[in-house]
Design goal:
The complex is a heterodimer of chains A (about 100) and B (about 200). With about 100 residues, chain A is mainly α. Chain A is about 75% helix and about 0% strand. In chain B, α1 packs antiparallel against α2 and α2 runs antiparallel to α3. The chains are: A mainly alpha (about 100), B mainly alpha (about 200). At the A-B interface, α1, α2 and α3 of A face α1, α2, α3, α4 and α5 of B.
């Protein structure tokens, strides 16, 4: 079986790619896609730590399931906000949504 | 096992790169499905079969489909005018690379970095243990209930935000493309749509 480090490095790389997406995309939905990638990287870490450090107590999987629930809540609210903003402003490009600036 | 891990890792990272760089958002959402499926394979490799099933059902079955719906509901802006990345994207790339380097450095200084997996004791039913842990009062029943309340509150809030009757429905307005704007199947609408 592969050592723990491979999973951790893969998840760090996935997290960094998601971070790049969040910071650099212009479209609000694409930013949410990047957040999903970051949440998945965290979940890989949680399940890998469960398997490699403490497989009998099930703590890591419980934590990962709660992250699933939070991710579902986050994406539902985020996409509802995007659709609502699109109805009002007819744009989902993040730099054009500046009505709360100043 | 090692080969499978390497293939899955390459698939996940390549799909994730396509998610953050692809200009067409429908393609980005489909690449996200590919990345999520790779993560489900990783869960199966880690002997967490239940997590793999939950990943497929919740992430691919619900969240990715929700993304595709949202992309299609905001479709008119999806034919990108302008670039998909903002002009400072190289700063973001630098920050991401620094984050990756920092995480790798931090992890490699940890003593347990190279350890291998202990064997799961035979006869250990992890799905039953997970179910017990989620509802047992001396384990995780409180976080579990808090998560359910959070989910209900978030979904009610999402419904309220998305279907607020005071917002104007642009599909009834003049400049929304109608069926006769599409001259042939799959064609683009003629330019009745006036852009500001």
């Amino acid at each position: 079986m592969v050592p723990l480090s491979w999973f951790l490095i893969l998840s760090a790389a996935l997290f960094s790619i998601g971070l790049f997406g969040v910071l650099s995309r212009r479209n609000a939905i694409a930013i949410l896609l990047g957040i999903e990638l970051m949440l998945n990287a965290v979940n890989i870490n949680l399940v890998a730590f469960w398997r490699y450090l403490d497989p009998v107590r099930i703590t890591g999987q419980v934590f990962a399931i709660i992250v699933f629930a939070v991710a579902a809540a986050e994406v539902a609210v985020g996409l509802a906000l995007v659709i609502s903003v699109y109805r009002n402003r007819k744009t989902v490009v993040a730099d054009e949504l500046d009505m709360m600036k100043w | 096992m090692t080969i499978l891990f390497l293939i899955t890792a390459v698939v996940i990272l390549a799909s994730a790169l396509m998610v953050v760089t692809s200009r067409n958002l429908v393609h980005a959402a489909l690449w996200l499905i590919s990345a999520l499926f790779g993560v489900a394979v990783l869960y199966a490799l880690l002997n967490a079969g239940f997590m793999a099933v939950v990943q497929v059902v919740i992430y691919i079955g619900a969240i990715a489909i929700l993304f595709i719906f949202a992309v299609m509901l905001t479709r008119r802006e999806m034919r990108d005018r302008g670039p998909g990345l903002n002009p400072n994207w190289w700063i973001s790339a630098l920050i991401s690379l620094l984050t990756f380097g920092g995480l790798a450095l931090l992890l490699s200084s940890w003593s347990g970095f190279w350890q291998t997996a202990p064997s799961i004791p035979s006869g250990f039913d992890q799905v039953a243990a997970l179910g017990d842990a989620l509802i047992s009062p001396d384990a995780f029943v409180l976080p579990f209930e808090v998560a359910s309340v959070l989910l209900v509150a978030a979904l009610i809030g999402a419904v309220y935000i998305a279907f607020n009757p005071h917002t104007k429905d642009i599909s009834r307005s003049e400049d929304f493309p109608r069926a006769e704007d599409f001259p042939r199947p799959g064609g683009f609408p003629r330019s009745r749509v006036t852009r500001k």
